[in-house]
Amino acid sequence: MLANEDIQHILLTRTPALTGRYEFLSFRNAAGGRAWLSAIREKAQSAAEVMASVEKDKRWVTVAFTWNGLRALGVDEESLATFPEEFKQGMVARAEMLGDTGENHPDNWVGGLASPDLHAIAILFARDAAERARCLTEHDQLVAVCEGVEVLSTLDLEATPPFDYAHDHFGYRDRLSQPVIEGTGEVPTPGTGAPLKAGEFILGYPDEDGPPANLPQPEILSRNGSYMAYRCLQEHVGRFRDFLREHGKTHEEQELIAAKLMGRWRSGAPLTLAPEKDDPALGADLQRNNDFNYKEMDPHGYAVPLGSHMRRMNPRDTAANMNRRRMIRRGATYGPHLPEDAPQDGVERGIAAFVICASLIRQFEFAQNVWANDRNFHELGNERDPIIGTQDGTLEYKIPKRPIRKKITGLPAFTTVRGGAYFFLPGIKALRYLATLGDVR
What we know:
This protein has helices at residues 30-40, 47-53, 67-73, 77-80, 85-89, 95-98, 129-144, 219-222, 237-247, 251-262, 280-284, 309-313, 360-372, 428-435; strands at residues 19-27, 59-65, 120-126, 149-158, 226-235, 328-334, 350-357, 396-399, 406-409, 415-425. It is of the alpha+beta class and 441 residues long. The two termini are 31 Å apart.
């Protein structure tokens, strides 16, 4: 059984938020940091709480820390040393391996996210703008009375219209292919795969390889916790639309190219099941829109190109050890919607997401290094992920087709990394433990 009452809600639940804010914090004073945590942890809900009250709640709060942040709160060196090396080093130190080069390099990140002074994040998801404003006033008042607690930066979140389903600024339907965790009671939709062991995502439980091992110490600190890789990706919507117009003469051709880059039509309908034209009813049907494989249904990529974003980030039955590579994704869009007929306006917009996993190196870093940025993924030779891979204008994208494949050369970057960090997501009891570190025991 999962200890839902001790797991922060973001790990197991999605909330009906239309707005929110990420606040990135620094603790110049350990006592001040713990005072802030003592107050904010009362508002951080467990998965059990959110499951019971999500329909009436208006705001949902999550708290997580960098390795430097745990030290700033007063975690001792012996305990800090038990955390995995990639978390201790942080995302900035691992930039080259992650493909964060050129425009994506941490030197270009904003909001202080590349600074060792980034210690914590407070994640607010709110049902509406009024609730967000109320929460922000409350948090400002809290920070003001906690000595040495500073807000490095903030990022306001806004859902992208239309609001009847989640999608990014490029228009692609989101939240379509998530793993199911054993013990949640959730029933996998067709094609999603069997439920995975909880230890793939939550510390302290058996994973697909067996009993939990090498947990950070003391156990109260790590049990029911996890790791989050934060990625803020600016989406260059005008550039994306220009690219589609350049390579497609008609609206139908442009939509097909957009689908070939992603592996799905923007409605969410997978090309494997709808190779010739969009099928919005299929895209919206959770019982059908994941029910496919690649090895038998599309081995050569005639429907879904071998290098498409979807095929790279979830190779399904064409990759080994997939049960140990899956990840949970949470997040939201930021910035205003750019209407279809509007020119590029110079305003930044994008997606700010968290990849949640028990092993940053085995799950997130593998996906970034091998799936997103390996030029020879599926023996493609000179490609990276067309949506999130590092593009410098020299790479290509191949669309298999009989009798002659289409090859696009000089693929532009449709996204740019604007910031990132590795966070530890403690359980509810661990938040209490961290808040009382300085107390006389």
